[in-house]
Amino acid sequence: MTEAAGESREAEVIPITRARTFGEPVSEETPDGPFPGPSAGGGDDQRLAELLAFLRRRVTGEYEVDEFGFDPELTDRVLLELIRPLYRHWFRTETVGLHNVPDDSGALVVANHSGTLPLDGLMLQVALHDEHPARRALRLLGADLVYRLPVLGHLSRKTGHTLACREDADRLLRKGELVGVFPEGFKGVGKPFSDRYRLQRFGRGGFVASAIRAGVPIVPCAIVGAEEIYPKIGDLRFLARALGLPYLPVTPLFPWFGLLGLVPLPSKWMISFGEPIRTDEFDPADADDPMLVLNLTDQVRETIQQQLDELRLQRGHAFPPFF
Amino acid sequence: MTHTVLVTGVSRHIGARVASVLADDPDIDRVIGVDTVPPPSLSRDGGVPLGRTEFVRVDLRSPDIAQVIAAADIDTVVHMSLVSAPPRSGGRALMKEHNVIGTMQLLGACQRSATVRRVVMRSTTAVYGSSPHDPAVFTENADPAEPPSHGYAKDASEVEGYVRGFARRRRDVVVSTLRFANFMGPGVDSPLTRYFAQPVLPTVFGFDPRLQFVHEDDAVEVLRRMAMEDHPGTFNVAGDGVLLLSQCARRVGLLSLPMPSPVFGLLGDLARGAGLVDFSPEQLRLMCHGRVVDTALLSEALGWKPKFSTATAFADFVRARDLAGGLPAVMMDMLSRTVTG
């Protein structure tokens, strides 16, 4: 990513007589964005040249994707750019404890999952990319449902995510990537509003086994705020089954208001990263010890639940200053 | 020590190139090339000079191959004669017979032979299938979530099964199975290269598969090394890196035409019926989910890296075929000039 930025900054500067500011809505929208324009004076020219160089690379296909299909440039400059306003202005997200996420080595971020639609994954990705000093790219492990669906599947790959399976998790961690998992899966993201901030079962602990095999730390992560974006007060089970979906939510706005019901409620978000749980004292072969894996899974789960309770208190009202 | 190498499938491009490099090697005494059809002539259809390769026209499906092996004291067999698309005249049944029965006959003959010491088998990464449930990168011991159920990929997995059986029965023979990614290069003619030579690229709406190519030069080099050295086992062969289909289309400068997958499948059937391009259901799956393999095992075994990455192999193909449209790039440059004055 820094390579791309460096490259674009080196793009040739074309002298122009009159500063023109059209054609770059993206950089105008967030002047404090991840690609800070050069200092005043000629900044517009250079930004324009950068934008043109970027467009040319995109049009001619001269960019790189990794073996998982991750396209860092597209992610940073287009896809994340689209959700940054949501992160900053709609959810007013705050982060705590980013120093617990390593700068340059592999780690497994384990977070609670909620919100009916998995916006928490996207916000977590923005948080780690924009707020972490090393601008880390989060590689989430997602359900295979995502990869079966058109559009969603390839967008998910392009933004760096992949299928939740042992092979992919091991491979990413071995490469020193920052991998994220939501062990609750659909049980967490699709739980009713009455169960908010109560962690669901943590699967079979596959993520712990992967961390042990790679010897990377587990960073427990609590996300507060996602529970309130689409309060799920009902479930159209029959229709969901007919459509092959894990659930079809009824929220105060959906489906009554149609597409308008898809606008998330503007809850206040906080994301906290807890102290890493080390796994390097284990032998990689311990990953095959179910007892150890399940115990560690429980430990991670309890840590996150505790973190979640504390963070919820710290945040206070979900929709300040009203209630 | 003397070497006599049998290469099957020499009438096709890669087979011919392998036979020709082996024939150039002074360590090899004889190269015998077999195929069901005679090699294309050099002047016309871009044939490859076969050097001192002795050509024998044998239908692999018949037991005649056993006589060739017995008569020439063959010690190394390079089996390249796997066809990936039904021949113009014949269809799927003939293709399957050629691939599966042909390999059975060949392996049967090898099992009887007292001289054969090494068998190199050309297979394909298509044996991994392509599905949304698979890991992003396949290693050699991966179990595909959905094993291929038809077409070339099914032939290849059946053939690999027979090869494993042969390796079990003849433990004294070194058996190397090479799973190649899609061949790419100036001389390659495959469903995929024909696909990229179209005026517009039909793609499946909502999918952007990851593709991997191996340059023909690298493929030939791997086959040559395998034929000359003992490297038992199964190896993935592919260029480093990955290209997305959308990236390929942009690099060729072609317009892609996304269509829903049922329409894409139907169009593929129609095109196949009309004999225009061959597009089988397994290719439809590849066009949805893509496929990437890990090649660490091969580089470790050979101590060698492919000269071409996926991207440079594709660039070489585009250059050689003079496909690069370049219109979008030119338009971008024009835009740059207008905007910046």
Give structural notes:
Chain A folds into two domains: 59 residues, no CATH class; 210 residues, Glycerol-3-phosphate (1)-acyltransferase, CATH 3.40.1130. Chain A has twelve helices and nine strands. In chain A, strands 1-9-6-2-5-3-4 form a seven-stranded mixed sheet, with helices on both faces. A two-stranded antiparallel ribbon of chain A has the order 7-8. Chain A is globular. Helix content of chain A is 40%, strand content 11%. By secondary structure, chain A is an alpha/beta fold. Chain B has a domain of 226 residues: 3-Layer(aba) Sandwich (Rossmann fold). Helices cover 42% and strands 17% of the residues of chain B. Chain B is built from twelve helices and 13 strands. In chain B, helix 4 links the parallel strand 5 and strand 6. In chain B, helix 3 runs parallel beside helix 4. Chain B is globular and about 75 Å long. The N and C termini of chain B lie far apart (72 Å). Chains A and B meet through helix 3, helix 6, helix 7, strand 4 and helix 8 of A and strand 12, helix 7 and helix 12 of B.
The CATH superfamily of the largest domain in chain A appears as: Glycerol-3-phosphate (1)-acyltransferase
User: Could you report the average pLDDT of chain A, rounded to the nearest whole number?
Assistant: 86
Shape of chain B: globular
- Straight-line distance between termini of chain B: 72 Å
| CATH topology term of the domain at 4-187 and 213-239 and 293-307 in chain B | Rossmann fold
Helix-strand sequence of chain B: EHEEHEHEHEEHEEEHEEHEHHHHH
**Describe the biggest sheet of chain B?**
7 strands, parallel
The quaternary organization reads as heterodimer
Q: Radius of gyration of chain B, rounded?
A: 21 Å
Percent of residues in helices of chain B: 40-55%
